[in-house]
Amino acid sequence: MSIVKEKIYNVLKGGFLVNEDSFKNWRFILFVVLLMLLMIASSHSSDKKVMEIAKLNKEIKELRAEFVDTRSTSMELKLESTIRKKVLDLGLKPSENPPQVIRVTSKK
């Protein structure tokens, strides 16, 4: 067998894990596994943050719609016609005489 075939055969059999210098191989394998675990954890963390951002954006849209609805209701309640209807139930009616302006001048 050629040297390349022997090395491939050795890798497939797992001989590189039990050789005398296999400690270097195990350290490298553990390092790669640690890096993969860190990468997976980082990916999960970023996915969690993306989901939280999407949830907050949805909540912002809902609150904005509620704000617009409340503001339009408030503006409708401020209208003179709405106020007249509300106070008419209480027995109040608008004055028939227009308001008069009172001006005060100070003498020096």
Q: Which helices and strands, and how do they pair?
A:
Elements: H1 3-13, H2 22-78, H3 80-88
Low-confidence stretches: none
Give me the count of strands.
0
Helix proportion: over 70%
Order of helices and strands: HHH
The amount of beta strand, in percent, is under 5%
Radius of gyration over alpha carbons?
A: 40 Å
Question: Based on CA inertia axes, which overall geometry fits?
Answer: rod-shaped
Count of helix runs: 3
Quickly give the structural class: mainly alpha
Q: How far from one another are the termini?
A: 121 Å
- Please, what is the average pLDDT? 88
Major β-sheet, in short? none
Features:
108 residues, mainly alpha, 71% helix
Describe the structure.
It is a single chain. With 108 residues, the chain is mainly alpha-helical. It contains three helices and no strands. The chain has helices at residues 3-13, 22-78, 80-88. The longest helix is centred in the middle third of the chain and has 57 residues, at 22-78. The mean pLDDT is 88.
In a nutshell, what does this entry contain?
The chain has 108 residues and is an all-alpha fold. It contains 3 helices and no strands. 71% of the residues lie in helices and 0% in strands.
